[in-house]
Amino acid sequence: MKFDFKTLPVIILAAGDSRRMGMPKGLLNYRGKTFLSFQLELLSELGFTEIVVVLGKDNKLYQEKVPELKDINLVVNPAPKRGQFSSIQCGLLALSKSHRLGVFILPIDVPCPDEDVWEQLAKVLSTSDANVSIPEFNGKKGHPVFLSEEFKKYLITCSSDTRLDHEIHKQRDDQKTKIISVNDRNITLNLNTHEAWNAYKVEQ
Q: Please, how many CA atoms are within 13 Å of residue 125, restricted to the half-sphere of its CB?
């Protein structure tokens, strides 16, 4: 199957409470702009044409601080306390009907990786019958993950209190998950504490 990964949708998850950080992670200042603005800018530079941002209780604050959201498919999870999986479902339901290969999922606290990562994840699913592809750097798995259209439809039907990793594990039992070795440490980062955030800023 021929594909152009840039035409595939990306869901950014930013509906969490950010309790360990103490403030919405997407609103942290990075290079003179909010981190969500920075992430959206990188995705735009990569050429992505459909981006869905899922927000929670801080959605009004995000809309005040992130002007780029005016041009983005913005979804508000009405009950984010149900957990991250409920936000994934909100994002999946908001996607257009035009995609037949799949969708990328990127949490807000994982920096946008290089172009090669996105391309490899999509390419694997375009040439196999797998339902999920996951990047791995030096033996550590990370994000974004890429979900097939078939798996996307299945996830929408699941209970909102499940977890994506649990559902993916079921796929692994059926050899439906592909682990893709990549050369980008960003896929393993989890910027959910001040220590992790400060270390990231120093390294960049």
A: 28
CB 7 within 8 A of CB 13: no
Phi and psi angles of residue 21, each rounded to the nearest 5 degrees, phi first:
-80, -30
What percent of the chain is modeled with pLDDT above 70? 96
Domains annotated for the chain, with CATH where assigned, are: 5-203 (3.90.550.10)
Tens of pLDDT, residues 165-183: 999 888 766 679 999 999 9
Q: What tokens were used for 104?
A: 């990328």
Q: Calculate the CA 149 to chain-centre distance.
A: 16
Q: What local confidence, expressed as pLDDT, does residue 175 receive?
A: 76
Please report, to the nearest 10 degrees, the dihedral formed by the alpha carbons of residues 54, 58, 64, 68 taken in order: -20
Summarised one tens digit per residue, pLDDT across range 97-144 is: 777 789 999 999 999 999 999 999 999 988 888 999 999 999 999 999
| E-strand stretches of 39-172 | 51-55, 73-76, 102-107, 132-137, 140-141, 145-148
For residue 20 the two structure tokens come to 């360990």
Amino acid present at 151 = F
Question: Looking at this protein, which amino acid is placed at residue 101?
Answer: L
Q: What is the mean pLDDT of residues 10-18?
A: 93
Q: Is 178 helix (H, G, I), strand (E, B) or coil?
A: strand
